[in-house]
Amino acid sequence: MGTYAYPRFPYKAPTDLRSDPPQRRPLIVVGAGPVGLAAAIDARLQGIPVLLLDEDDTVSIGSRAVCYAKRTLEILDRFGVGDPLVDKGVGWNVGRTFFGEQEVYRFDLLPEPGHKRPGMINLQQYYLEEALIARATELGADLRWKHKVVSIQPADDHVRLQVETPDGLFAIEADWLIAADGARSPIRRMLGLEVDGRIFMDRFLIADVVMKADYPAERWLWFDPPFHPHQTVLLHKQADNVWRIDFQLGWDADPQEERKPENVIPRLQAMLGERPFELEWVSIYTFQCRRMKDLRANRVLFVGDAAHQVSPFGARGANSGFQDVDDLLWKLRLVMAGQAPDRLLDTYSRDRIDAADENLLNSTRSTDFITPKSRASKTFRNAVLHLAREHAFARRLVNSGRLSVPSFLTGSVLNTPDAEAFEGRMVPGAPMDDAPLRIDGHDDWLLDRVGNGFRLLVFAPSAQAVPAGWRDKLAELAHDPIPVTALVVAPDGGALPGFTVAQDPTGLAAQRYDARDGAVYLIRPDQHVAARWRAFDAARVRAAVAHATCNA
User: Fold this and answer.
1) Do domains 22-90+110-194+289-365 and 198-288 have the same CATH topology?
2) Residue 474 · residue 499 · CB < 8 Å
3) Do 160 and 152 form a contact (C-beta atoms < 8 A)?
4) For the segment 212-252, what is each residue's pLDDT rounded down to a tens digit?
């Protein structure tokens, strides 16, 4: 047993940042939590110089966000940090719900084979942040610790910041600013922007407990357990034999009293019995379901908790923040490069507000079921749980937290609607499904072969079956102002000079993308489907790229 050794990152005096008049940077990110660090990494992958400012000099204290969903893991793969984080984390797919001591509901996040990543991993937030900091540094992001933004002055074509450091104040300007400074967002407050929504009148105790236990790597949630009657308890396994336990306390609980070890330890002993454990971290939290009306304020773009907040039931907070970054940075790159009009960034706000509303709806419903606020709703909840012991129809009503799933941006104005019939769920706006491939004799994955730029999936009976007339036009697309590179997917692979050809050894890629008749898919840089056709046509591809970048 042991505890995590929190690193301290070196402060650098802002001598090189001071100038008169203030120097201008292309992009500044405020906030070095997981989402801000993700923004800095993605900026560098997009070729954007980035300066990241954070008022602290270490990672987050305690486990905090612990559940990272399959879509987030796929984004982390694109960032180049997926493997070590998945190796360190605890993967899981099964969740179990108990009423008293009896199991009443069970779900599996990954019921089908042929995906690289599990439905979820559990990993303490400090490990995630440490890995993201290392990757951002490796990619050349300029990370500045003990740099606190204390004022902001927006202008039409830039934003001016006043930054406080141990060596005094200085001013700096940014062409673009990404605010990733958390739920209380000082940037949002300085701009006088509000968040609308609902605050839930309840309190939960988080305890990180170090212990050796033979519980499986699953999500367990109890309603009215004998060790904590009339309330709920949630258990997750994390790395290093650390277990995350959440106890519902009720709104009347005194946060200062409840966090004292002499009050926490008896709760844990009632749950764990005689099993030895070490208390690593304790916190009390309340939660809210709120969002901004617009995630863009001219040159300021809000991501993560600064833009929207949800209750923790369903792990939709940090996971949706990673998807914000995934949606934003490729658009910002094109706008900054003059390859797309400014209005492309408005689609970031619209699409991610749609995603936030979906998360808020699911999170609110989960919270209302888990923590009912009236006698009638609690009676209904308990009746559902009683019936779920014996009846399948009632199990569908059990809401122990509808867990984070990727957002299907089917309403996005950037999609090119289908002109031909397709089956399956890979509709325009959908996040891509993964599938195993083989390339040059080596096992590979579809999602590892797309992202960071526009990609064209060309399904063919064989590499040799790709018509000669297509090859030249496919090659020309790679030299367009907004390049589109092709990946040919065939059942038996093969070779096609000048192109990457992937074998579909299991047929899952063809199945998931309804690849009959030689389907062609245009994939956005964030691995969402932009358009699809039954045959390749370079003019239609170019029109769809123009549509997806607001250049149409």
Assistant:
1) no
2) yes
3) yes
4) 998 899 999 999 999 999 899 999 999 999 999 999 998 88
**One-letter amino acid identity for 453?**
G
- What's residue 402's pLDDT? 56
pLDDT at 174: 98
Count the Cβ atoms, other than its own, within 10 Å of residue 479.
8
Q: Measured between alpha carbons, how far is 25 from 484 in angstroms, rounded to an integer?
A: 29
Sign of the torsion formed by the C-alpha atoms of 384, 386, 391 and 396: positive
Per-residue model confidence as pLDDT tens digits over 497-539 = 889 999 999 999 999 999 987 899 999 999 999 999 999 999 9
Residues 159-192 have pLDDT tens digits of 999 999 999 999 999 999 999 999 999 999 999 9
Residue carrying structure tokens 């109890």: 222
Strands in 38-147 per DSSP E? 51-54, 67-69, 90-92, 94-99, 102-108, 120-122, 142-145
Distance CA 318, CA 254 (A): 27
* DSSP element (H, E) containing 272: helix 261-272
Contacts by residues 224-230 (CB-CB < 8 Å, ≥ 24 positions apart)? 224/99, 224/100, 224/382, 225/98, 225/100, 225/101, 225/271, 226/100, 226/101, 227/270, 227/271, 228/267, 228/270, 228/271
Strands 51-54 and 142-145: parallel
What is the reported pLDDT for 35? 97
Do 169 and 163 meet the contact criterion of CB atoms below 8 Å apart? yes
CA distances from 411 to 278, 355, 422, 530 (A): 49, 10, 18, 12
- 198-288: CATH topology is D-Amino Acid Oxidase; Chain A, domain 2 (3.30.9)
Alpha helices in 273-407 (DSSP H): 317-336, 344-370, 375-388, 392-395
Q: CA torsion angle for 333, 334, 338, 340 (degrees, to 10)?
A: -150
Where do the structural domains in the chain lie, given as residue ranges? 22-90+110-194+289-365, 198-288, 436-548
pTM over 0.90: yes
What fold, for 436-548?
Glutaredoxin (3.40.30)
Domain with residues 22-90+110-194+289-365, CATH architecture: 3-Layer(bba) Sandwich (3.50)
